[in-house]
Amino acid sequence: MASLTAHALRKSYGGREVIAGIDLELRPGECFGLLGPNGAGKTTTLRLCLGLTEPDSGTISMFGMPVPRAAREARARVGVVPQIDNLDPDFTARENLLVYGRYFGMSDARIAARVPALLEFAGLANRADDNIKALSGGMKRRLTLARALINDPALIFLDEPTTGLDPQARHLIWERLRQLLAQGKTIFLTTHFMDEAERLCHRLAIMDRGRVIASGSPRELIRAHIEPQVVEVFGDGAAAWANAHGASLSERCEKTGDTTFCYARNVGPLLQDLEARPELRYLHRPANLEDVFLRLTGRDLRD
Hints:
By secondary structure, the protein is α/β, with parallel strands linked by helices. The chain is built from eleven helices and 14 strands. The chain has two domains: 4-222, P-loop containing nucleotide triphosphate hydrolases (Rossmann fold); 227-286. The protein has helices spanning 42-49, 71-75, 93-102, 108-121, 137-148, 167-182, 194-200, 218-225, 238-249, 268-275, 289-297, and strands at residues 4-13, 16-26, 31-35, 57-62, 65-67, 78-81, 155-159, 186-190, 203-208, 211-216, 229-234, 252-256, 259-264, 281-286. It has a six-stranded mixed sheet with strand order 6-7-8-3-9-10, sandwiched between helices. A four-stranded antiparallel sheet has the order 2-1-4-5. It is globular and about 70 Å long. It starts with a strand and ends in a 6-residue tail after the last helix. The mean pLDDT is 94.
């Protein structure tokens, strides 16, 4: 049985359709990523799936239970890490876990038995009695993840879990998420970090303007939607070079600011030309999920 399924979901606010008939399915034990620019409908989709917002039409099932009708029962098996940490600032790290467990009707003895392992999981065993205000941003984020696990959930919703963290903290969160997947947990992840999605997700759906416009594994999406090789040409003279030579030496060129992105299957002639132009700087790399995302959703800034 799928951990979560959604079929033909629609939701409008003020006459504007923000979710336009999407289908989703999360398989047990996988990390499923939902990607999209700001305003694509990601957070609304999460709220619909959690039963916090009622759809205008469509169906949702979590662990075989209908949502939102049986959302309360379904959420007993769910953990949620919101975009913004909402830890209680008046409590210590340990107390935040203890109090949160009571929301699930857990006995104090059962909660207390789980707290030490969760603090260790978060790397906060030696900060258990510190007030939340004394913790760094990375520590708070790890504690929020640990708190989401207090009820030993089968499904964990992560809404941009590493936004605002430094690289060390991001990598530690990634390591902890891999541990959860190894335990058989299912993860529903939204993120703006394409490398995060590429590292963690078994499957992805890319949303734009309330619709799913592409889905598959990271490798499948890269293979289906983008040329395999990318050369970024930047600096003085890059624009003039692109106008004169870019199109003939690559299959596709895109200009953003002072950088020209050249996409090709065979980059030999392109690199040979650039090597003869010392005034130009360039970077050669394989295509990645960010290239796919920008091709499908565009490079224009979304507010």
